[in-house]
UniProtKB/TrEMBL annotation:
One of its GO terms (biological process) is positive regulation of myotube differentiation. Residues 42-96 form the P-type ATPase N-terminal domain. One of its GO terms (molecular function) is phosphatidylethanolamine flippase activity. The keyword Lipid metabolism does not apply. Residues 129-191 form the P-type ATPase A domain. Coiled coil: none annotated. This is Phospholipid-transporting ATPase. Residues 890-1083 form the P-type ATPase C-terminal domain. The gene is ATP11A.
């Protein structure tokens, strides 16, 4: 057999197609190329089925069991269950098997149901009907039966069934309009272009006669990148090759709009489509609580092994005496006497492991999962986080990180669209030093129809007038804006009246703002028709420009260009972009005047773009065309070759001017950042904008304050000094100010030390991240991190998307290992969202890529405040108590082992984990510093864990030895009988159930009817179950050890006294500890709790938290007010008097509402609000 063929087959079917060939060849309509043209190599591609499900009918049970038993607790209980089956153990296998079966079954049902929903959704998509061409006729079949090479017809408002190369459309110019809402959330209409040589084919017969092959790259997840070429054969002539790019690729999931129908050829199908590649699973994130839980579990496993080992040794020490080893009533058999001693010891060790295995809480995992899953709905149901403007509410993409929201130490946020609205408004333009604004204010009135005003000197002269018109034309032509379709007559819109605003659509809000702004200054962009762009000038004349080339904008070049040809035959190259990419390529123009205006606008927080042009001769354009064609046809490194061509073409410009667009700050963005800083969270802004614009935004949103000393680590600084010197100077500055004390990570806002703000740009960050030449580990990262630790806020500007992720990773992996959160709204923020511990997407104007790849999504940045300070705080408090409570209550073992963790004690702690509020939500929003009480996993530290463990050990000793001393050899029944072993165990178990339930009741601060029902109901259920279990002879049981035991215990007075006494003694130490700590060393949270209960009439709405430290604090407003509080009202009110009128202030901090109130004057008020005249 040919070895090369075998190697090809193995690499093809085992390693995957992408590993064995760099590109693929597709035969349009499955037609082979003409003889002699090229070799026909058939390739195998997947069908068009989408599979998002995880399991199949056949592999569900083994695959699900394998995944569940990868958990250490489940695997441990499986081993214990098998040991109970194999050897003679003190307890029945049912006691381990039933809880394990319950946990496994509940988890399997949950995962199976979720997967069934995915199967259902997959089938709906895969069975959707699709029209394709076969033998010149239109045939209908299911979507899953599509193959690569099929020619498909899609009608208006239908979704594309796979990734298609656009061949032709019903529109004469060979274009179509598409919305990609389901891919990236952008609802704007995007224009796509048919292949030049096939756009004239408008019916099935013409399309079916097409003879062509397509060469393209293998499937890639990048939605905005595609490289390929099409070879169209005409008779036996050489094929005509045309480049294919992202503008020719129609993606699966996108929707056809404003176009009757299109024809396209399938190139990527099924799981190879870009949509499917983008929906691949993200890496698993684990919360700090889950990590702590696993560590505690290992500790308890070690305790269990130690207990079993000690008891095994003690057993053999006890049996060292012959009369103890083999008493007269239990003689050993011959096989037992001959049994190997070490094997017997190992068996006894396993028996003790089984006996004590209830120290490991098997039901904790399922309770935690249910708490997270059900608790996540509180975010989705929060009406305060619903945005009426967009009609969007918060989304929870994963419930595994709920409690991590309460542990955030660093917040990394994007600027545009996150801190700002991403709703651009044209402010002004500067043309050769002359400033034009669309709205002029005169005597307080806005003159909307003003065509511009010169703000610097007199209006431009002759040459200046020509540059002015060129500038306006450049703005009208250099863009990718579309005009919304309308009925048209004779090439003009029916409603197109001079100066009548058009409705513009674009994926970039900047471009729409510029075109609309220039329209108010006299030049109106009308449309693009038959490759001609039409604009309406100030004289109401229509000018036509032939669109020759478009150099699309990209984040590396930071500019875009168009080449157009006027009706007079002049060829212009217009370019607009960031000042840093335009100024170095300008050879003439009023550079300094424009630069000065750009810097001034940037300082004011405006987004600026520079505009330039150059004229091309016909010969120059011909050379440009050849360079572009050569680069566009390349299949390998096309982007790199195009970038080189653009670099050659986009130079020697004449500067025309600059524009300024305002992106307003989002509502309550400054309030949110201020609250986060008070909570001890450091906020970093990562943006691609220029330094001046970003810095102005940071001042506006209170990230930087007037007393903040700004430290710069920018390219300009590094050019003046070396990177080494700049870093060491900055490090000395922050260390010298703070002395020997290192500022805490949670410094937040401080009045004791100087606040520093650091500004760093992308180029400087690249140098810092680059290792030193000598290869030593002593690079600059540690110095940079030390500077950042001592800064209250950091601004990173000119950042590429990858650099944003690098910053997050750098902080995340630093020696403190802080918990990080990244928030953004655009596709360029996805990398940092995925890198951070918690990723939050803004459902904004830049699409849904960020929201789709995030762990949580919110409509506005302001909602981050409640998500962290309220929901995160509550989630962490609840789950930390839940975890500790489970370890505390599983330190015992007695009669009802099987139902103890499942029925008797699990439901109350689950409800606690869902409902508990140790303080009100309004309090947490008013006092962000309370967030510090739970920071750095404060409630799951070793000290707290040891305390709970000690408490459990203490209670266990009290239960056993207390019951033993109280009831030993005591006549306790009327007939003179004493308690036996089972009755003694029932007393201990009853004390246990009541104690752990009362302990939870004591820890509960927020009582609802649900809490009352499950806490007291679980005790009632225990009593009823015990009465039924021991009071009835069950026919399906071989023996009943508990028969009449519970009734015998209840009939004894000393047993009742012993139960009450033991419960009191068990709860007393914890209650004393709580009282002492609250009185002597109260936390800020405990001071608030105390104030809400005992000082309701001594605290006003505006009382600082620091005042609560003093127990003698009294509100002057309360003490001086002549009014008195109604006795029927249980909540706090503050009275003030001004001009003889009483005012009441009901603080939302304690959950009060103005429902009913009376003053001494006898006036009555019923309503809501914080400050109301009475």
């Amino acid at each position: 057999m040919d070895c090369s063929l075998l190697r090809t087959l193995v690499s093809r079917y085992c390693a995957g197609e992408e590993n064995w060939v760099d590109s693929r060849t597709i035969y349009v309509g499955h037609r082979e190329p003409p003889p002699g043209a090229e070799a026909y190599i058939p390739q195998r591609f997947p069908d068009n089925r989408i599979v998002s499900s995880k399991y199949t009918f056949w592999n569900f049970i083994p695959k699900n069991l394998f995944e569940q038993f990868r958990r250490i607790a489940n695997f441990y209980f499986l081993i214990i269950f098998l040991v109970q089956l194999i050897i003679d153990t003190p307890t029945s296998p049912v006691t381990s098997g039933l809880p394990l079966l319950f946990v496994i079954t509940v988890t399997a049902i949950k995962q199976g149901y979720e997967d069934w929903l995915r199967h259902k959704a997959d089938n709906a998509i895969n069975q959707c009907p699709v029209h394709f061409i076969q033998h010149g006729k239109l045939v209908r079949k299911q979507s899953r039966k599509l193959r690569v090479g099929d020619i498909v017809m899609v009608k208006e408002d239908e979704k594309f069934p796979c990734d298609l190369i656009f061949l032709s459309s019903s529109r004469g110019d060979g274009t179509c309009f598409v919305t990609t809402t389901s891919l990236d959330g952008e609802s704007s209409h995007k224009t796509y272009y048919a292949v030049q040589d096939t756009k004239a084919f408008h019916n099935e017969q013409e399309i079916d006669a097409l003879h062509a092959t397509i060469e393209c790259e293998q499937p890639q997840p990048d939605l905005y990148k595609f490289v390929g070429r099409i070879n169209v054969y005409h008779d036996r002539n050489e094929p005509i090759a045309r480049p294919l790019g992202s503008e020719n690729l129609l993606l699966r999931g996108a929707t056809l709009k404003n176009t009757e129908k299109i024809f396209g050829v399938a190139i990527y199908t099924g799981m190879e489509t870009k949509m499917a590649l983008n929906y691949q699973s993200k890496s698993q994130k684990r919360s700090a609580v889950e990590k702590s839980m696993n560590v505690f579990l290992v500790v308890y496993l070690c305790i269990l092994v130690s207990k079993a080992l000690i008891n095994t040794v003690l057993k053999y020490a006890w049996q060292s005496e012959p009369f103890r080893d083999e008493p007269w009533y239990n003689q050993k058999t011959e096989p037992e006497k001959k049994r190997n001693l070490f094997l017997q010891a190992f068996t006894d060790f396993l028996a003790f492991m089984v006996l004590f295995n209830y120290i490991i809480p098997v039901s904790m995992y399922v309770t935690v999962e249910m708490q997270k899953f059900l608790g996540s709905y509180f975010i989705a149901w929060d009406e305060e986080m619903f945005d009426e403007g967009t009609g969007e509410g918060p989304l929870v993409n994963t419930s595994d990180l709920n409690e991590e929201l309460g542990q955030i130490e660093y917040v990394f946020t994007d600027k545009t669209g996150t801190l700002t609205e991403n709703n651009m408004e044209f402010v002004e333009c500067c043309i050769e030093g002359h400033v034009y604004i669309p709205h002029v204010i005169c005597n307080g009135q806005i003159l909307h129809d003003c065509t511009g005003i010169d703000m610097i000197d007199s209006s431009p002269g002759g040459s200046g007038k020509e540059r002015e018109e060129l500038f306006f034309r450049a703005i009208c032509l250099c863009h990718t804006v579309q005009v919304k379709d309308d009925d048209s007559i004779d090439g003009l819109k029916k409603n197109q009246v001079p100066r009548r605003p058009c409705i513009y659509i674009s994926s970039s809000p900047d471009e729409v703002a510029l075109v609309e702004g220039i329209q108010r200054l006299g030049y109106t962009y009308l449309r693009l028709k038959d490759n001609y762009m039409e604009i309406l000038n100030r004289e109401n004349n229509i000018e036509k420009f032939e669109l020759l080339e478009v150099f699309s904008f990209d984040s590396v070049r930071r500019r875009m260009s168009v080449i157009v040809k006027s009706s007079a035959g002049d060829i212009f190259l217009f370019c607009k972009g960031a000042d840093s990419s335009i100024f170095p390529r300008v050879k003439e123009g009023k550079i300094e005047q424009v630069r000065s205006r750009v810097q001034r606008n940037a300082v004011e927080g405006l987004r600026t773009l520079c505009v330039a042009y150059k004229k091309l001769t016909a010969e120059e354009y011909s050379n440009v065309q050849k360079l572009l064609q050569s680069a566009k046809l390349a299949l390998q490194e096309r982007d790199k070759k195009l970038a080189e061509v653009y670099e050659k073409i986009e130079r020697d410009f004449i500067l025309l001017g600059a524009t300024a667009v305002e992106d307003r700050l989002q509502e309550k963005a400054a309030d949110t950042i201020e609250a986060l800083q008070k909570a001890g969270i450091k906020v970093w802004v990562l943006t691609g904008d220029k330094m001046e614009t970003a810095a102005a935004t940071c001042y506006a949103c209170k990230l930087f304050r007037r007393n903040t000393q700004i430290l710069e680590l920018t390219t300009k600084k590094i050019e003046e000094q070396s990177l080494h010197d700049v870093l060491f100077d900055l490090n000395k500055t922050v260390i010298r100010q703070n002395g020997s004390l290192t500022r805490d990570t949670f410094s937040g806002l401080s009045s004791d030390t100087q606040d520093y703000g650091l500004i760093i740009d992308g180029a400087a960050l690249s140098l810092i991240m680059k290792p030193r030449h000598d290869g030593s580990s002593g690079n600059y990262r540690e110095i940079f991190l030390n500077i950042c630790r001592n800064c209250t806020a950091v601004l990173c500007c000119r950042m590429a998307p990858l650099q944003k992720a690098q910053i997050v990773k750098l902080i995340k992996l630093s020696k403190e290992h802080p918990i990080t959160l990244a928030i953004g709204d655009g596709a360029n923020d996805v990398s940092m969202i995925l890198e951070a511990h918690v990723g939050i997407g803004i459902i904004g104007r830049e699409g849904r890529q960020a929201a789709r790849n995030s762990d949580y999504a919110i409509p506005k940045f302001k909602h981050l405040k409640k998500m962290l300070l309220v929901h995160g705080h509550f989630y962490y408090i609840r789950i930390s108590e839940l975890v500790q409570y489970f370890f505390y209550k599983t330190l015992y073992d007695t009669a009802y082992l099987t139902l103890y963790n499942i029925s008797f004690t699990s439901l109350p702690i689950l409800v606690y984990g869902l409902m508990e509020q140790h303080v009100s939500a309004d309090t947490l929003k008013r006092e962000p510093s309370l967030y510090r009480d739970v920071a750095k996993n404060a409630l799951l530290r070793w000290r707290t864990f040891i305390y709970w463990t000690f408490l459990g050990v203490f209670d266990a000793l009290v239960f056993f030895f207390g019951a033993y001393l109280l009831l030993d050899n005591t006549v306790v029944t009327s007939n003179g009988q004493v308690f036996g072993t089972w009755t003694f165990g029932t007393v201990v178990f009853t004390v246990l159930v009541f104690t752990v339930t009362f302990k939870l009741a004591i820890d509960t601060h927020y009582w609802t009817w649900i809490n009352h029902f499950v806490i007291w109901g679980s005790l009632v259920f225990y009593i009823v179950f015990s009465l039924l279990w021991g009071g009835i002879i069950w026919p399906f049981l071989n023996y009943q050890r508990m028969y009449y035991v519970f009734m015998q215990m209840l009939s004894s007075g000393p047993a009742w006294l012993g139960i009450i006494l033991l419960i009191t003694v068990s709860l007393l130490p914890d209650a004393l500890k709580k009282v002492l700590c609250r009185e002597l060393w109260p936390t800020a949270t405990e001071r608030i709790q105390k104030a809400s209960r005992h000082c309701r009439e001594h605290i006003s709405e505006f009382t600082p938290l620091a005042c609560l430290k003093s127990p003698r604090y009294r509100s002057s407003d309360c003490s001086n007010s002549p009014a008195r509080r109604s006795n029927s009202h249980s909540k706090k009110v503050m009275f003030t008097q001004w001009r003889g009128i009483d005012y009441s202030v009901l603080p939302s901090v304690f959950g009060c509402s103005n429902k009913h109130w009376s003053s001494s004057a006898g006036y009555h008020y019923s309503g809501s609000g914080l400050e109301t005249s009475i």
